[in-house]
Design a protein that fits this description.
By secondary structure, the protein is of the alpha/beta class. The chain contains 15 helices and twelve strands. Strand 8, helix 6 and strand 9 form a beta-alpha-beta unit. Keywords: Signal.
């Protein structure tokens, strides 16, 4: 009778384990578990990452710049961050192993959110007013471009550095006249604090001369070079999470609530829908699919950044966005 040895059993078990081993890809969000984070949670809970052979844990962030150093240092292989801030980071840290690989906010949510009762209805109204701006905020990082595009003198605005937790409360209490922030974050937060929706003015920078892109999935390039199939699989799973969230936002928010049970489900449902309608599912994305960029528009975005930021080295779009990891199997098609 054939009796396999203990060593043979161990070898077989080791091979089986290796065959089923998952690549760990912890993902650093830009912000908290709010509506726009739902697609990534959906991808986790529906097993889309697991199907790609990946083990993914989604972690909250502390602003749209927060994930960049996390990914550059290798603490996280992938993250979600503002591509414009990534440009400046790479200029100040040449050779840092980080780049964007999938555009999510084709139309960025960078906004100035104010109150009509405090005199804020148009960009010109900011002159002589007090603006609350968190230093790590992606919208604040782009505010000089917004000011330049609208002929605003920065010196005419009193800028109050504020923390993220106090930003909307200060606007609700009238301590500042407007704040910088993501449209779907600050708008709904200030309404939740009791400000009438009719009193809230939302100046979306993309509607006022700012041609920039927004947040993208970023990757540690050393990790990506060593694990190209894992990165492509990750992006494919993200696309599936967004598709599901677009087709059934209510179910997506229910999935999100397991990570943030104290959240207001109706509010987060509204926040997710705002991000879909205003930032993700643009006409360009409907035509070209999720994740890519238009080279001509990217060149214009770099020129706008140059108008308010002096690059140490000549900017190079290839350093900031690498489309080579995007899946080519049709999974990025939104319709």
């Amino acid at each position: 009778m054939f009796r396999p040895s203990l060593a043979a059993f161990a070898a077989a078990f080791s091979l089986a384990a290796a065959a089923h081993a998952e690549t760990a890809m912890p993902f650093a969000l830009d912000w908290k578990f709010e509506g726009p984070a739902a697609p990534y949670v959906v991808a986790v809970d529906k097993g889309y990452f697991t199907a790609e052979g990946l083990s993914v844990e989604v972690s909250e962030g502390a602003g749209s710049l927060d994930a960049i150093p996390k990914v550059a240092t290798g603490a996280f292989p992938v993250g979600f961050a503002d591509i414009n801030s990534l440009m400046k980071f790479l200029d100040q840290n040449p050779g840092a192993p980080v780049t964007a690989v999938m555009m999510i906010y084709d139309k960025p949510p960078f906004a100035v959110v104010g109150r009509k009762s405090l005199g804020i209805e148009a960009p010109a109204d900011l002159a002589g007013k007090k603006l609350g701006a968190p230093p790590p905020d992606g919208a604040w990082a782009q505010f000089p471009i917004f000011a330049e595009a609208n002929g605003l003198d920065m010196a005419s605005i009193t800028v109050e550095p504020v923390g993220f937790p106090t930003r909307e409360p200060m606007l609700a209490e009238g301590q500042v006249d407007a704040v910088t922030g993501f449209s779907f974050t600050s708008t709904l937060n200030v309404i939740r604090l009791g400000v009438e929706a009719e009193d809230v003015s939302v100046l979306l920078m993309a509607d006022h001369g700012v041609a920039l892109y927004g947040n993208a999935v970023i990757v540690n390039t050393d990790f990506a070079k060593a694990n190209p199939e894992a990165v492509t699989g990750f992006l494919r799973a993200v696309a599936k999470g967004w598709k599901d969230s677009i087709s059934d936002p209510e179910a997506a928010i229910q999935t999100l609530m397991s990570r943030n049970p104290a959240a207001d489900a109706a509010l987060e449902r509204q926040r997710l829908q705002m991000s879909i309608d205003d930032n993700v599912l643009t006409d360009w994305v409907k035509q070209n699919g999720l994740g890519g960029i238009d080279e001509a528009r990217m060149a214009k975005a770099i020129e706008q950044t140059k108008s308010v930021y002096t690059f140490v080295k000549a900017p190079d779009a290839k350093l900031y966005f690498d489309p080579s990891y995007l899946p080519t199997d049709g999974s990025l098609t939104m319709y």
